[in-house]
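Page 42, continued from yesterday. The earlier attempt failed because a stray header line got pasted into the input along with the sequence. Redoing it now with the clean sequence only.
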Amino acid sequence: LDYNYQANVGVNQASLRYVEVVNTTDGSELGFKPCGEYPWGASFVQHEHAIVTVDDSCRMILWDQYGDNEEQVGIESAVDLMLSNPAVLC
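This time it went through. Structure tokens are written below.
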């Protein structure tokens, strides 16, 4: 994760903004011959923002996160395509 913004925004609350890179498997972890053809071996960038609330002992009580819907759909579509392969489900 690459944090590009961090700030205290209220009592026991912090704001975090970060970029996350999500990589799909190339198939080798599933016993397949490695493949770099989409959706296998694909990389996706996700921009995320979270408001984190902690209690007075600094224990996290809420992680309220959201991101870019279009970026999330791209990842979900790739995973759905990978899971449509019957060999993956065995």
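Notes: The first helix runs from residue 69 to 83.
Reminder to self: strip header lines before submitting.
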